[in-house]
Amino acid sequence: MNLKTVEFSESFAREMDFKDSLAQFRSRFYFPKVKGQEAIYFCGNSLGLQPKMVKDYLDQELKNWAELAVDGHFQGEDAWYHIRKKSKPALAEILGAQEHEVVAMNNLSVNLHLLMVSFYRPTAERFKIIIEKGAFPSDQYMLESQVKFHGLNPDEVIVELGPRAGEYTLRTEDILAEIRNQGDQLALVNMAGLQYYTGQLFDMKAITAAAHEVGALAGFDLAHAVGNVPLQLHDWEVDFATWCSYKYLNSGPGNVSGIFVHERFAERPDLPRFAGWWGHDEGQRFAMEKGFLPMFGADGWQLANSNVLALAAHQASLDIFQEAGIQRLREKSEQLTGYLEFLINKISGESGILEIITPENRSQRGCQLSLLIHRGGKTVFDEWYQQGVVGDWRHPNVIRLAPTPLYNSFMDVFRFGKILEQSLKKFA
């Protein structure tokens, strides 16, 4: 988007929507209402909207359950015994992975713990973990408890990287420098792929390479990156990752997570793991014998049989992603977020009320902009909600707005701009 041609006008927004090759997808989602009017929904970073196809996908599995009962595990087009395989092509495309490197299972926090069992193996010499300061609580609590599980002191093990004084985001050079500084003591880099509070997208390729250079592993929490930005986990040689599907993947509240495990670990039965029946070699699974033999690839980290209804809702959204294409979504995302950034800067001007703390460089962010509120606090957020803007408030004084390319429009951003214009007059 050429900033010289961008306008704060309804005609500009409508023209952009007219040119948008992804505009058709908006009609495939349900929008909530505020005071009886369709909301300006900028909260896909917390919970994605419901695809209208979800009901059909769920109804089909309910029909299978009603008509086939237990035989549904082995009969029908999508027999439940292999139902996990259906999501693999889309997940592999979204994550930049091989199909055997990904599997949908469990929830994010559960998967974090399961992966740590295999990939955090501290020794007397190599035991430290690097994470970004202010990581999402799921990551903080998981790491703290995992470190204690090994009889270690989190204060001595977990290295939290914070921005430089006066800055809001981390510099890649500082992350890489700290990895080298920890050197032989570093066991693991376990960061977010995209930081939930600031919206900063980390250079996962460079971070992974630096970790490997000092003999450490690199794993990422992709809760805010998956379905938001293009990923190439296989080519970047990331060791492992997990995510949730209810944000940008629009799979429903609390729905299924997934894991990525690089194929170099695909045939490593020696790796410690908490084993379960569904991770056992499916060719021998019904022999019901002791002696765990993990399946090839990420499937070998499964515990229990698949949640069929959850995967049905998940698939409804994944099918849309495959139709839209992650690269086209990224292109629109940059335009939408760029337009939002333009309007915020133009409208707030020198007022000193708002400050965008998400990186200005579009290659270092997804579709979320985090706004630091210097005056008015949550009153500003509440004012916007009363006008129909559904965003996200984060303590102590940040509003997160995420125009999501699958279902948000340029008119959404323009309408927000008009609300912002009126709102700031009250707090000037």
Write structural notes for this entry.
- The chain is 36% helix and 13% strand.
- With 428 residues, it is of the alpha/beta class.
- The protein has two domains: 3-51 and 326-427, Alpha-Beta Complex (Aspartate Aminotransferase, domain 1), CATH 3.90.1150; 78-322, 3-Layer(aba) Sandwich (Aspartate Aminotransferase, domain 2), CATH 3.40.640.10.
- A seven-stranded mixed beta sheet has the order 4-10-9-8-7-5-6, sandwiched between helices. A four-stranded antiparallel beta sheet has the order 11-12-15-14, covered by helices on one side.
- Strand 1 and strand 2 (37-38) form a beta hairpin.
- The model has no long low-confidence stretch (mean pLDDT 96).
Shape: globular
> What name does the CATH topology of the largest domain carry?
Aspartate Aminotransferase, domain 2
Overall mean pLDDT stands at: 96
Strand proportion: 5-15%
Number of domains: 2
Helix share bin:
25-40%
Summarize this structure as a short list of keywords or feature phrases.
2 domains, globular, Aspartate Aminotransferase, domain 1, four-stranded antiparallel sheet, Aspartate Aminotransferase, domain 2, seven-stranded mixed sheet, alpha/beta, 428 residues
